[in-house]
Amino acid sequence: MKNIKVLFFIFLLFFTFHLVYGELNLPFSKKDIPLEDHINKDLISELKQIQKDGKSLDWSEKNKLIVTAKKNFDEYYDLVIFKPDGSKEENLNINKKSAPTKHNGNPCWHPSGEWIIFTAQNEDALGYFNMKKSIPGTGMNCNLCVMDKKGENYWKQTFHETSIRDTKAVIHPQISKDGNKVFWAERIKDSEETNWGEWVLKIADFEVVDGIPKLINKQTIRISEKKCFYESHDFNSEGNKILFSANLKEGVEENGLDIYEYDLETRELKNLTNSPDEWDEHAHYSPDGKRIIWMSSKSIPIKWGSIKGHKWQSYLKTDLWVMDVSGENKTRLTYFNKIPEKESVNRNFRVIVSDCAWSPEGDSVLATVVIINGGKIENKQILFKLKNNGSQDEKK
Predict the structure, then answer these.
(1) What is the pLDDT of residue 341?
(2) How many Cβ atoms are within 10 Å of 177's Cβ, its own excluded?
(3) Distances (CA, A) of 104 to 76, 119, 190, 252, 387
(4) What beta strand segments (E) does 38-178 contain?
(5) CA distance 306 to 195
(6) How do residues 307-366 score in pLDDT, each as one tens digit?
(7) CA quadruple 163, 165, 170, 171: dihedral, nearest 10
(8) What is the pLDDT confidence band of residue 34, given thresholds at 50, 70 and 90?
(9) Cβ atoms of 319 and 336 closer than 8 Å
(10) Is the Cβ–Cβ distance between 359 and 284 less than 8 Å?
(11) What does the pLDDT look like over 66-78, one tens digit per residue?
(12) ∠ CA(300), CA(302), CA(305), 5° rounding?
């Protein structure tokens, strides 16, 4: 009888804790939310889940394979590849003698299909704190690495030491279409003026000498004197322009990211979204260079709390958008955050459309979609088949 009372008391505490902190929020939806009913059918012909539990991703034009990062049984992320239909999944890091053993993520294919550049957690970054802070996309105490397409050989490319103060971080390396340049975002130090520290954009030349890939001539891309956050997204087809997100405007915090295009030759900077009260991120040029896909909180009401650390994850809601490369004709592709309450039943239902990649033909987009329905969190990688390669007249 005593054991039953103890178990009941433990259950009551557990139930109360989750109810108070909003992680249970009964009732749950008893069925999957019909996402296909909440898309722009003028531009999307089909929606299909092809994988689950992935993070940022890239789609190789050369070998037609997709690479992403998935959490393994040890709670660390490994790089995996699979075909566009989701089949033939292969873990590139597990049981590989020279592979980094902790978080590996933010992968990007070299155009040759022979190399993958990615972020890897330092081997001496130990403990629960580093497991959370070094997760791909946060990248604390991580460095850039290059591996061959089979995951047999690895070469470290940056050499930041593990630290608690002024912790360095690297995220989202991107490779130019000719394979000669790489740029990425890097945290350089702590800052009391920001929520996430001081970040910069870095660029380097990529070369292969005697079968060994190297990043040389590393430089900082000087964009602004403001201490802020940067995230690297893409090179254009000519390799002279880059897309990135940042909160460059004075007084704008990191939840007001805009998409910028920067000309590496003329140093011309263009704000493509110009919406400091919205979150814009994960921008990628279409293969023909005419459009840009990205995710945005545009037209979605959000009651923000603190965004320090990972707290922003408790509030963010985004959908998938497309625009002309000029920044005109912004068009919403999904309406996941407008799903009626009668379908979701949980008052805290929300969706975060995250990183995405164009198919080599430009007729599809694969996106990581996180669905939060009360205490149920699903991470899906969804393929959106586009009509007319996502081109349409202006539609707000």
Answers:
(1) 63
(2) 17
(3) 8, 6, 23, 31, 35
(4) 44-52, 54-59, 66-71, 77-82, 90-91, 104-109, 115-121, 142-148, 154-156, 169-175
(5) 9
(6) 998 899 999 999 999 999 999 999 999 999 987 766 755 667 899 999 999 999 999 999
(7) 120
(8) confident
(9) yes
(10) no
(11) 999 999 999 999 9
(12) 160
Report the half-sphere exposure of 31 (CA within 13 A, side-chain side).
5
Q: Comparing C-alpha atoms, which of 164, 155, 93 is closest to residue 125?
A: 164
Cα 102 to Cα 105: distance, rounded to the nearest angstrom: 10
Look at residue 393 in the predicted model and tell me its pLDDT: 53
User: What does the alpha-carbon distance between residue 349 and residue 378 come to, in Å, rounded to a whole number?
Assistant: 12
Instruction: Name, in order, each residue with C-beta under 8 angstroms of 129's C-beta and a sequence gap of 6 or more.
Output: none
Structural class in CATH, domain 62-221: mainly beta
Question: How does pLDDT run across 229-255, given as a tens digit for each residue?
Answer: 999 999 999 999 999 999 999 999 999
- Lookup: tokens for 272: 């493509």
| Residue 105 near residue 126 (C-beta atoms within 8 A) | no
C-alpha to C-alpha distance for 37 and 335, rounded to whole angstroms: 9
**Residue 74 to residue 150: CA distance in whole angstroms:** 21
Report yes or no: 269 and 320 within 8 Å, Cβ to Cβ. no
CA angle (362 as vertex; 358, 365 as ends), nearest 5: 35
Say if strands 77-82 and 90-91 run parallel, antiparallel, or are unpaired: antiparallel
Domain boundaries defined on the chain: 32-55+249-254+282-396, 62-221
Query: Average pLDDT in the 169-198 region?
Result: 97
